Amino acid sequence: MANDSSKYPYKLPFSYYLNPDVLFLAKNLLGKVLYTQIDGKITAGIIVETEAYFGVQDKASHAYAGRRTNRTEIMFGSGGVSYVYLCYGIHHLFNIVTSVEDEPHAVLIRAIEPLEGKEIMEERRNMLSSKAAISAGPGSAAKALGINASFNKKDLNGDEIWIEDHGLRYSEKEIAATPRVGVAYAQEDALLPWRFFIKGNKYVSKPNKI
């Protein structure tokens, strides 16, 4: 793992998110650091689990078959913005819109490893940051970082939510690729190995077997 202090850290540029290859981005985002700043309080976590959603072709995607609603319209814009929605009426899930306009790809952040502002995360989750459950799973990760509905449609180059490259790099052997979680409705697309996570990281959500 490289970490050249003369080069890192730096905020990911807008151009990063315009990459049309959402599978590449879902893997490449592993090791990047997701930040939020709320009322002057900064929290951050290393991204250790993601899922890719492949636009209009993907039966698991909210944008499948070009479906456009008030909720999903943000996905059809240019990448580099957040897409936050409520799941089961309880959990806010944080997604990164990627690719160019009218290519509604997205990456769901499923888990983070707490890095900065751990005591703030502990207050939000009412548990110690050493416990995997604090940020394992997309709902828990979002809550630990204070992400709620107000974070929908935020510019990822802003000062409320952003992603930095700290030079963490993982080899193919260190990354697992498995089917996504909770998308049985997507029929054959539910079997696609579009969930990526760091092998052996305790903050990865269950099931984390490969």
Protein described:
This protein is mostly beta strands and 210 residues long. It has a single domain, classed as Methylpurine-DNA glycosylase (MPG) (3-methyladenine DNA Glycosylase, Chain A, Roll), CATH 3.10.300.10. 10% of the residues lie in helices and 29% in strands. The chain is built from 3 helices and 9 strands; from the N terminus they run E-H-E-E-E-E-E-H-H-E-E-E. It has helices at residues 22-28, 118-125, 138-144; strands spanning 10-11, 33-38, 41-53, 81-87, 91-98, 105-116, 161-165, 175-178, 195-198. Strands 1, 2, 3, 4, 5, 6, 7, 8 and 9 form a 9-stranded antiparallel beta sheet that branches. The relative contact order is 0.24. The model has no long low-confidence stretch (mean pLDDT 94).
Short key terms for the protein model shown above:
210 residues, mainly beta, 3-methyladenine DNA Glycosylase, Chain A, 9-stranded antiparallel sheet, 9 strands, 29% strand, globular
Please outline what is shown here:
The chain is mainly β and 210 residues long. It is built from three helices and nine strands; from the N terminus they run E-H-E-E-E-E-E-H-H-E-E-E.
